[in-house]
Design brief:
12 strands; four-stranded antiparallel β-sheet; elongated; alpha+beta; 250 residues
Length: 250
């Protein structure tokens, strides 16, 4: 049993002990991942087949191979993913220095892997057709030119043909697909008028890709842009069509 003095001391200390603040347990946080914003990395990628300078140019081409935005007429935006600061070709080692965020660099490396293959040549035979429409809607057609273009897969090519009036220019970039078909991506330009196209083709298949016209009629311009011959009467007008006669890879 506690003595009376001990009991009195305990009773006297108890209120003081109760009044003292209790220490809180430390708070802990679990961090599952940390993402550093704005961090850039530089990687050197050595190419095995393709030319480094050529691949650098392809990677930095605008989204549209005809180099302008169809809706606004402004220069096309870069096809590089957001986060890429620079791509520099090092000719001596046939490699590329890529600088940007880790995610963007990884995306570019995937595209490089797809491009760094033994290059194939794409052969394209075109026809530029001129349709002259009269007031009654009747038309006469003649072949303006039959140009042949050969370029490497994924590499843009351009040819201009001088006609009776303005020169007609064809911009085209071929993309060889794993199934053997070829996508033609480009534009037809005549004077100030232009229209873009993108069409998947098989070997020896012929098709009208696109047409351009100086007509101010929205219906006529729409028909020409998708390669159709419009049924229209009124003021005379002209449409230039681009036909691919054949396309093949070698």
């Amino acid at each position: 049993m506690l003595s009376r003095i001990a009991m009195a001391a305990l009773l006297w200390l108890s209120p003081s002990l109760a009044a003292q603040p209790q220490k809180e347990a430390p708070t802990t946080f679990k961090v599952s991942s940390v993402r550093l914003v704005g961090v850039e990395v530089s990687q050197n990628v050595r190419l095995q087949h393709a030319d480094a300078a050529s691949i650098a140019a392809i990677l930095q081409m605008p989204r549209s191979s005809n180099r302008f935005d169809q809706a606004s007429g402004a220069p096309a935006k870069s096809s590089l993913p957001v986060g890429i600061r620079s791509i520099i070709a090092e000719v001596s080692s046939n490699s590329l220095w890529i600088t940007g965020t880790p995610e963007a660099v990884a995306a570019v490396r995937k595209r490089i892997d797809a491009l760094d293959v033994k290059q194939r040549t794409i052969n394209m035979h075109f026809k530029v057709l001129r349709f002259d429409f009269d007031e009654a809607g009747s038309w006469d057609m003649r072949i303006v030119s039959e140009p042949t273009l050969s370029t490497l897969d994924e590499w843009p090519a351009t040819i201009s043909i001088q006609g009776d009036d303005d020169a007609t220019t064809i911009d085209v970039t071929p993309h060889l697909l794993p199934n053997g078909s070829i996508v033609l991506d480009g534009a037809l330009r005549t004077g100030k008028d232009h229209s873009a196209f993108r069409r998947e083709m098989t070997a020896r298949k012929s098709a009208i890709l696109v047409g351009v016209t100086s007509s101010t009629s929205a219906a006529i311009r729409k028909a020409a842009a998708i390669g159709h011959v419009p049924a229209a009467t009124g003021d005379p007008f002209t449409i230039f069509y681009l036909q691919v006669a054949s396309v093949s890879g070698s």
